[in-house]
Write a structure and sequence with these properties.
There is one protein chain. The chain is of the alpha/beta class and 307 residues long. It has a domain of 197 residues: Rossmann fold. 41% of the residues lie in helices and 16% in strands. The chain is built from eleven helices and eleven strands. It has a seven-stranded mixed β-sheet with strand order 5-4-3-8-9-11-10, with helices on both faces. Strand 4, helix 6 and strand 5 form a beta-alpha-beta unit. Helix 9 runs antiparallel to helix 10. It is globular, with a radius of gyration of 21 Å. The two termini are 35 Å apart. The structure holds S-adenosylmethionine (SAM).
Amino acid sequence: MAANKSRQTTPAARVQRELLPEQSTALLQELHILTRDGQLNADSRRKLKQINHLANLLTPDLERLFADERDPLILDAGAGNGYLGFVLYELWCQPTGRGTVLNLEVRADLVARASERAQTLGYARMVYEQQAVAALVPAEGLDRPPVWHDRPVDAVVALHACDTATDDAIELGIRAGAPVIAVVPCCQAEIARLLAGTAVHAPAGALWRHPIHRREFGANLTNVIRAHVLEAFGYQVTVTELTGWEHSLKNELILARKVQRRNGLALKQLQQLLAGLPYLPMGLLERLLPGPAPLAQDAEPASEPAT
Ligand SMILES: C[S@@+](CC[C@H](N)C(=O)[O-])C[C@H]1O[C@@H](n2cnc3c(N)ncnc32)[C@H](O)[C@@H]1O
């Protein structure tokens, strides 16, 4: 019988190669990423690769942040078990004695478990709050930046935050003027839902007429819009794979660094893109770039292949 792949383990000697400089096996054991005898199973290895790669890519930004700010605030949106936050804390907040990792998570059980872990580890500035990401974003206009206990948000990370929680993280980061925003989106349903029934009205409708294409096109379009919105708000954006596709299907990293106040050219490109599509009242667009719909359609129910 074939061995269960996720149970296969990586021997301790090879585990060392997966670690970042300054990263301890003790923390990874506490997080149950490593087993008690210091081994990795296939699932944990995938997770560790994602987290470490992202932590590594963020190194120049965090270096700058810890040099510029006395007490930087790193916000993890949809933190789950907080693996990424714990690793960032160990690498940056612990050695410097500065900085806070604020984790926003809606699930009470995860908040309780991670808070307990933070306490066990003595990570006093690894903070968990049970609330939705959007709750930290003021309802009023763009001029009011989100703050946490009067502190500005310096970096926003969101690793696989579900569907529109990624957009909430992007909005939070943009409105905070955070120098760095890094998101690895998860499942995406909003745009596919908005595209449903519109294919027969749009010149390019064949791209999303079939449900499976609509899901894929919708996910792709979502990330294209996200990247353009970030650019329009003055971020320099890189879109890459986080790790090899064999490690995760949800693998697209959108890494954004604030370089200017606004970018009119990027906004125009976004408007041109949207003008070629049916009216898409995507929450992120509606909240950050409200205005007349570029190409509103009186969509009738259209005949499309069933799911
Ligand atoms: C797929 S998990 C990823 C967790 C973690 N970032 C990781 O990579 O291991 C997504 C998490 O986001 C949380 N979540 C979903 N929507 C959220 C929201 N609007 N605000 C805060 N957390 C949310 C879920 O409860 C879940 O724990």
